[in-house]
DNA sequence: TTGAAAGCGGTACCAA
DNA sequence: TTGGTACCGCTTTCAA
């Protein structure tokens, strides 16, 4: 009996109209604060609506005045501070447009990503975010929705993609390390994909440009723990390494911790430079040097492109869809 | 000329139908993979839809099959790691229900909060989150929407509220400090509201229970910098303080930094215990002792209550809507 | 297998 | 100031 009593149908504008003894449009007027309605009538309608617990259907309303825009923001892991920053920036940019943002955390899982992509198409006007699946699949699942990919190499021009250009920043980082006297520089790359990351390519190019031998590379999970164990492995196999560049700041922070545990003083015995420019990097000891990205700019750019795609006003070109990274020296390297 | 060419009206199911030479319901069938349709017809429709760039209106669709549920998650500052954790937990819980989540960051501003509340009602089926405005105002703006308030004392029973009970945890923290020999324990409260926080009340009760004099209190902004300057002020005015309890972990981390700068070794010269139990606390040096909250449980509980409110299946009672905090000793105190 | 018609719950435009 | 009517874009029911 407990759950059967609440078997109530939705309260519609019609119910309110009947209850107040007026027509539907009068109810509409009362609720939307239009003029052209008698004060007492309005009050009566409002009372009826309240008594009935009436709430207008967002679908019906959206159908007739198609003004609200919603975008889907897809993030692999909201707890990763980098994505948190991007998400916050995107939220802010969307708010400036008056848009609503539906956030989906795919938990770094291709399966969740698929599920998200599947349901998202019917809920939003555009999609922005990080994806691991192929463009073909994304295309199939989003069916013509404007999509803005972040930090991905564009294989076709079906989608917009925000490219992260860290080449110069990484070069500056390596040059800096070399000037400090480092000759054996390793890298902690991320372990997500099969191939080495683009950041690794920048690293390799930079060391080569400095005339160094190719440094040793170790794969790390994208977590503090991942960074810790990766650094341990790297140093165990290559004790001569005096500096490391990491795929991102999270991994770098792990490296910092591992270094301390191993009794290596940073930056004296080991220099560490990360990538991303997280605020978090200023809180650790020593503060983390990093190749910093403008995460706010990134989020804003992604939303801006979505806006242009949506309005059909000349979208940004690939040349403009770039966020550059620059070396930010603190104390770790 | 550039922008005028794209003045296109929305492509509707009707356009597709005409283009494919079929009726609208046939288009619907083709797109929704219903049976009862000839293979070739289906293909023709699909082709036409693709060519026209057709995408079904989510409003029209939602109107007829009212199955998707969306909740609004309102957060004061997504970049504050505590709220990030709560948001991530809520997202996860919502996903388990198959719900969509619209996230709003009110930037700690009562004005933004008002704006959010205003637009949110027409977009979601329920609201969950942090609010600073009075229940009257929230009520007025949400008009009957189910609302779950987090970390707020309930003044009426118009809303559900998740209460955070840190009394025992704080008592344990203070007891621990006293056992360590501390006699003069200060607090860094937050500076947001006019009155002292509930956490301060717990602190005061705990020190009193331990037979201590009332410790000095200093207000701090909810940021690392806020914690830094607050600790400096506190120690300048009360140099005899040997331990501090803080409103939250962020402030505590600021205190840690300030202590280092002041040459006070933690925990030897100054013990610090925070509140929240952020993961971040494990990354700082020394790792932060804290009165920890189960943030995942918090997010899940909030969403669970929203679900019950929505389905009308017996909502959780105030007694059940509580998240308790417990002392988690690491190294800072 | 296909199409016609009737809504879903609102709002806008008109006439009363 | 009010109500009638049409219609937003889609899906469902029922008949052809």
TrEMBL record, chains A, B:
Residues 11-65 form the HTH lacI-type domain. Keywords: DNA-binding, Transcription, Transcription regulation. Pfam families: LacI (PF00356), Peripla_BP_3 (PF13377). The keyword Amino-acid biosynthesis does not apply. The keyword Lipoprotein does not apply. It comes from the Bacteria. CDD domains: HTH_LacI, PBP1_LacI_sugar_binding-like. Transmembrane segments: none annotated. PANTHER family: LACI-RELATED TRANSCRIPTIONAL REPRESSOR (PTHR30146), TRANSCRIPTIONAL REGULATORY PROTEIN (PTHR30146:SF138). This is LacI family transcriptional regulator. It comes from Streptomyces camponoticapitis.
């Amino acid at each position: 009996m407990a759950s059967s009593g609440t078997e109530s149908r939705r309260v519609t504008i019609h119910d309110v109209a009947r209850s107040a003894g007026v027509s539907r449009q009068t109810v509409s007027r009362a609720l939307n604060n239009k003029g052209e309605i008698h004060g007492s009538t309005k009050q009566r309608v409002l009372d009826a609506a309240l008594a009935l617990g009436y709430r207008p259907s967002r679908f019906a309303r959206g159908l007739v005045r198609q003004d609200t825009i919603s975008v889907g923001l897809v993030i692999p892991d909201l707890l990763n501070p980098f994505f948190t920053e991007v998400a916050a920036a995107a939220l802010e940019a969307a708010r400036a447009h008056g848009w609503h943002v539906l956030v989906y955390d795919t938990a770094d899982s291709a399966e969740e990503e698929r599920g998200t992509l599947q349901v998202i198409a019917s809920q939003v006007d555009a999609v922005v975010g990080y994806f691991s699946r192929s463009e073909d699949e994304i295309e199939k699942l989003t069916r013509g929705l404007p999509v803005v990919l972040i930090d991905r190499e564009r294989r076709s021009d079906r989608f917009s993609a925000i490219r992260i250009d860290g080449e110069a920043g990484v070069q500056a980082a390596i040059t800096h390390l070399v000037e400090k006297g480092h000759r054996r520089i390793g890298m902690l790359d991320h372990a997500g994909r099969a191939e080495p990351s683009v950041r690794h390519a920048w690293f390799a190019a930079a060391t080569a440009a400095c005339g160094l031998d190719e440094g040793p590379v170790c794969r790390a999970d994208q977590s503090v723990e991942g960074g810790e164990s990766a650094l341990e492995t790297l140093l165990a196999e290559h004790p001569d390494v005096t500096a490391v560049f990491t795929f991102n700041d999270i991994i770098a922070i792990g490296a910092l911790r591992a270094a301390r545990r191993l009794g290596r003083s940073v930056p004296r015995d080991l220099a560490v430079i990360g990538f991303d420019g997280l605020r978090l990097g200023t809180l650790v000891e020593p503060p983390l040097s990093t190749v910093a990205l403008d995460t706010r700019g990134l989020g804003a750019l992604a939303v801006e492109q979505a806006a242009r795609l949506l309005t059909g006003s000349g979208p940004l070109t690939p040349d403009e869809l770039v966020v550059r990274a620059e070396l930010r020296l603190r104390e770790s390297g």
